[in-house]
Amino acid sequence: MCRLLGVVTRVPRPLTETLEGLLEPFTALSREHIDGWGIAARRGREQILTRGTDPAYASPAYRSATRVTADAALLHLRLASPGAAVRPGNTHPFVAGTLAFAHNGFFSPREALDDLIEPELLAGATGDTDSERFFLRVLSRLHGENTDPIDALAHTAADIGSRADFGSLNCLLLTESALYAYAQEDPESEVSRRRGPEFFRMHYRIGADDAVVTSNGVATGENWETLPYGRILEIRRSDLRVSTHAVTTAAPLRHAPDTP
Fold it and tell me: What integer pLDDT is reported at residue 11 of this predicted model?
């Protein structure tokens, strides 16, 4: 299992400044989530990707990457699924063009989506994880009938729900226009039963100058809200406008905002 942290700011700032008070407790989670880390940061139209297979807490490259100046970013700490290799190609975030994606969870079998992924995308996969296949199916949908990222995420979640067993489909998708966070778990999965009902919770905080979303494990307070399961949080990069959208892994309909 993994940990996620995403942020959007009004103006570019070093991540160490934007995430002050959050970055250290998030990084400390890498003492358990030891199988690599990655940061996809955006500064205007520029995307900066840095990844490593060492634990973030012990990585000079990670510390350097957290000092990047950006107006949007997603951070990932990896705890590899049993049997999954720790190597660069399996390290999140996964990127394609202007998109970056990171997943916290698993589904099985990992090949469940292979026949739904565009052949050229599948052939170009950098690794062999279920998480990358999640992203490749989202890309395939974006190239086809679901040009809206919210619809692509919702329908891909439905694809997984109809074809595979999953523990969590929590993920972050960063595009040129917005950061999207999706929260979904199976409370009957072995991981959910073993870790408890809060393990896959995601929380978000909306401020005057930034918006942050994070996995459970980072201390949150009264200014934080829980992202309910079956919801996609959308944070627009242009104006920090935030909305949530209800979806279901069974039969998602055209999304409708829950909040203005």
Answer: 95
Q: How far apart are CA 138 and CA 150, in angstroms?
A: 10
Gap between the Cα atoms of 7 and 244, Å rounded: 16
Which residue do the tokens 């949908």 mark? 141
Cis peptide before 60 (omega within 30 of 0): no
Domains annotated on the chain, with CATH:
3-246 (3.60.20.10)
Could you tell me if 92 and 101 are in contact, meaning their C-beta atoms sit under 8 angstroms apart?
Answer: yes
The upper half-sphere exposure of residue 59, i.e. CA atoms within 13 Å in the direction of its Cβ, equals 25
pLDDT tens digits, one per residue of 89-137: 999 999 999 999 999 999 999 999 999 999 999 999 999 999 999 999 9
